[in-house]
Amino acid sequence: MEGTNPVNKKLAAALSGGAVLVLALTGCGDDSDEKLDAWAKEVCDAVQPQAAKIKAANTAIQKETSDNSTPQAVQQADSKAFQDMSDAYKAIGAAVNKAGAPDVENGEQKQQDAVKELNSISASYAGLKKQVDGLNTEDQADFADGLKDIAAELDKLSKSGSDALSTLEEGEVGEAMSRQASCQTATASAGATKS
């Protein structure tokens, strides 16, 4: 199965990039603001289980890569991983939406932009699931070509606008998030995912 392995490694690497996007909940500082801290805690607590889901999806894809799996097994693992990713990003978007606007300047705009972006990422992963489900697993070369296209899409997705999330997480919001234990756990997961 050497044909799929390099491509699947690329797939796994691209996926890791996408996962890190949402887990970049870093920041430092110790200014305290109760309202903002309560908002950050709500978002971080909701992100943590989804971060674990994203990490597990990455692990599943990497496992299929290292196991020298059949195209059918790769297709199955990737399909489930993309579905899990799609669900996780959607859930994070819903959590940010439910938390409301953070108590900062332009908080509402920042929140809306982040929700829109998270939903868009969720839809992109759902699209990739459809794409991988449609690949021909009977033809090794054809399957490898299809995976290449998916890896390219993933690469774009992982680099695509993390701007709204970065904007949401800058300044006071990022500082409030960095004070939450659940966000620190998510960030640690991101570090582990990236390696």
Written overview of the protein:
This protein is an all-alpha fold and 195 residues long. 80% of the residues lie in helices and 0% in strands. It is elongated and about 60 Å long. It starts with a helix and ends with a helix.
Structure keywords:
8 helices; about 200 residues; disordered C terminus; mainly alpha
Structure in a nutshell:
The chain has 195 residues and is mostly helical.
How would a crystallographer describe the biggest sheet? Answer: none
* Assembly status: single chain
Helix content: over 70%
- N→C terminal distance: 25 Å
SS-based class: mainly alpha
Residue stretches low in confidence (pLDDT < 50, at least 5 long) are 24-31, 190-195
Strand content is under 5%
The run of helices and strands is HHHHHHHH
Q: What is the alpha-carbon Rg in Å?
A: 18 Å
Number of helices: 8
Number of E-type strands: 0
The backbone outline, from C-alpha atoms, is elongated
The pLDDT mean sits at 79
Give the topology, please:
Layout: H1 5-23, H2 34-66, H3 71-99, H4 107-133, H5 140-159, H6 163-168, H7 171-178, H8 181-194
Helix pairs in contact: 1-2, 1-5, 1-8, 2-3, 2-7, 2-8, 3-4, 4-5
